[in-house]
Specification:
Elements (H helix, E strand, L loop, with lengths): L4 H15 L2 H5 L2 E7 L6 H5 L7 E2 H13 L2 E12 L3 E12 L4 E13 L5 E7 L2 H7 L7
Parallel strand pairs: 1-6
Antiparallel strand pairs: 1-2, 3-4, 4-5, 5-6
Length: 142
């Protein structure tokens, strides 16, 4: 196993996600974690519920409630890349949005940023936002 503690933390987060152990994920977050914090994001402007900006573990829990309402067919972590303060994860995900019946299957990058105490201070999805919006039955923003 890699000795990088940030890499180990992200591995533990994905293991907890696979086991449905959301409290274990929330325990790794800074109290002021910024989830999907962007200056401008196409998916957020379009209203994608998984891309809503959230602050703090309580609001991040709402993200996992949205994800819990999806029919996930597969989720795989393909690779992890670690630096001094960030870890990037290449993942594949395939899910159906029950409300629309639309299926989303794609590759994504997840960027995890850590604070000086080793807690997640920011998380961002890098994905095809137009494809994501279509899955939720949402129009593309102007």
């Amino acid at each position: 196993m890699n000795a990088n503690p940030k890499l180990q933390a992200v591995q533990a987060i994905y293991q907890a996600f696979g086991a449905g152990n959301i409290p274990a994920i929330l325990d790794k977050l800074a109290p002021d974690v910024r989830w999907e914090a962007w200056a401008d994001n196409f998916g957020q402007r379009g209203g994608a519920p998984t891309l809503v900006e959230r602050r703090g573990p309580d609001q991040v829990m709402a993200f996992f409630q949205v994800v819990g309402g999806l029919q996930i067919h597969s989720f795989q972590v393909l690779d992890l890349m670690a630096g001094e303060r960030q870890v990037a994860a290449e993942v594949t995900i395939d899910f159906t949005v029950p409300a629309t019946g639309h299926r989303y299957a794609d590759e994504e990058l997840h960027l995890w940023t850590f604070d000086a105490q080793g807690r997640v201070s920011r998380f961002r999805h890098y994905l095809d936002t137009a494809k994501h919006l279509r899955a939720f039955g949402l129009p593309l923003p102007q």
